[in-house]
Predict the 3D structure of the following.
Amino acid sequence: MPKHGKRYNAVAKTVDKDKRYGITEALEMVKKSATAKFDETVDVAIELGVDPRHGDQMVRGTTSLPHGTGKSLKVAVFARGDAAKEAEEAGADVVGDDDLIKRIQEGWRDFDKLVAAPDMMKSVGQLGRVLGPRMPSPKAGTVTPNVGQIVREIKTASRVEFRVEKAGIVHLPIGKASFDAQKLHENLAAVLVALYKAKPASAKGRYFKDLTISSTMGPGVRVDIQAVQALGEGKQITA
């Protein structure tokens, strides 16, 4: 078990590990627990009632957070011609075609996200083994004819990707501790609605099984699962 400092232990005592809190209360608790000297990220860990070992129960997709994540990302784009110009105007950090492919083959990795115009994928495909999960993907929305729109969404940190892990858990940032609770609430709602829409037809039983919210350096706060379910179904609740 990792050892925690006095600050963490003091904050952890205010959280009942056996209790499931209302969403607003949980967010306020997480904000109060974020006492580090930097603006901590607020993350959610969502356990879903799926078995990712089965291909028909994989949950993956993207959504846009109405208030962004508060993080600035570096975006590189594979594009040429008008698409390249569009990416540059949208604020992409690096835009290229064969020259960008060569840089990456030579080890360049100074980016957070990669986006590609569809006509580039025949060439970009050779980077599959090099990039692994960082490869642009139609499922992740990073292979698109609308490169400008996607670049703007990523640069403003409003766009997030989700992918269920082997244990059936999705981890996502929903903002910064400096955000007010209402903005965090609305960002969480966007995430839950997107996950609910991505529910596999083969998933049986309860879909949202558990949800914990935490800041970078703070303890996790478990949330009432009925409230989570209602928010995922698009019901606007404030509790």
